[in-house]
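Hi Y.,

Following your request, here is the sequence exactly as I used it, all 502 residues.
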Amino acid sequence: MMRRRTKLPELPDFPPDAQWLNIEGPLRMSDFAGKAIALSFFTSCCIHCTHVITDLRRLHARFEPDLAVIGVHSPKLSAERTDDAVREAVLRHRIEFPVVNDRDMRLWRGHGVSAWPTTLLISPVGRVIARVVGEGIFAALHDGIVDLLRDCARGGELDHEPLPLRLERDREPVRPLCFPAGILADEASQRLFISDTGHDRMIIASFDGRVLDVIGDGTPGMEDGEFARARFREPRGLALDGNALYVADRGNHAIRRLDLQSRMVATIAGVGRQAPGIMTAGQAASTDLNSPWDLTLTEHRLYITMAGAHQIWRLDLQTDEMEPFAGGTMPGLVDGSRSGCLLAQPSGITSDGARLLLLDAAASALRWAHLPPGYQVGTWIGRGIFEYGDRDGEAGKALLQHPTGIAHHGGVIYIADTYNDSVKVFNPHTARVATVVGGGEAAAAGESRSALTRPCGLSCAAGRLWLADTGGHAIQVASVDGGPLSTLELHPEERLLEGLGV
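Below is the corresponding structure, written out as tokens. Let me know if you'd prefer a different format.
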């Protein structure tokens, strides 16, 4: 049992009715007596919060049990407020420290927080000794934690007993797919390329679900070489060029190339670490990237949504040079020239031949950017970083909620409206948007088996929509005209379960 002491009046206490994850709750501030606390406020949809979670994981591993790392999920989006949504985020982000659902923002207001992410370092006697807004918290807090723990140890203030964690992941079954976030359907070869993001690997299957290949051994890492021995970390968006499959390896901040003929994996951009500041142009193999999310190929250039940098970058596959293509160095929803516009966590990207079509997830926006020789960036749907919802109809009045997947087919644009659990279609000629799969109507009709959960990737081929149903851990299929969904059964399932602990 943890040592208990009188509640610290200087700090707002955890709401007694709040849901806790990864530990038995409810908990009070007094339950963390004798420990330094890293109290980190985050929201699951924020790319900067994703980066901070990586640093929190490092702090937890470095200083446990004397430092209690606690995540406070204070939601930006309405769809993030439920306990189930927070649990899904804990699993998807692989969080292994306690998390409390601050669904009504009581802790957020009580601690005077105003931006995501914000991390407080609290001493064992209840004094806030550091407040870090933004990323880079490992470097910002590490030395201070060392000094704090040393001083507290001298004063006999530390409780070295580990917290009684009860990890959510330990209650999850082993699945053939885990949070798949990217999919590409190639009609010419009748093959599907799937980013099995939660298992850190790639899967190639036929249109009827037969597993043709598994790339990666299922262990997170960054290893090139033979398909069976390669390693990825949260792969997402895909682009295909003949026998070359390009992968946005988000967690490794890298672009990988899979040679489908030689069955070899190579890193062509990024060095395996997040860019420490503003990204700079240069040779791709030595350029630090910042959470590449999705890819599209036009001629010999690979266009990359760099979610962490709020930019689109361009990689010339003939010269191996990388350079920024659109967006400034801060998030926003501002149209204009490619160099003068602002983007906000760009996610899905594709092309109609004359323009790049892209989604700004943080602004819940559908946007376009001219390909050369054009130079303008514009917006079809979206009003700002805090304007979101679920509304069809005229583009100027329509609302999305953190969309991340996009496809262009038959002159219209398909959108994986991730936090609305739906697919919408936008017609640029009529400037109207409509829901074609999932969403509120499907839920109201009781279509539980075919309902979507946080879809992140989609592709069009053979008259069908192929959907990476990320929260549903499945690939779903529907007509491009909408209608009912069916789950693609991958077989043999045993091949996908090999090496996953079963």
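The first strand starts at residue 20 and ends at 21.

Thanks again,
Q.
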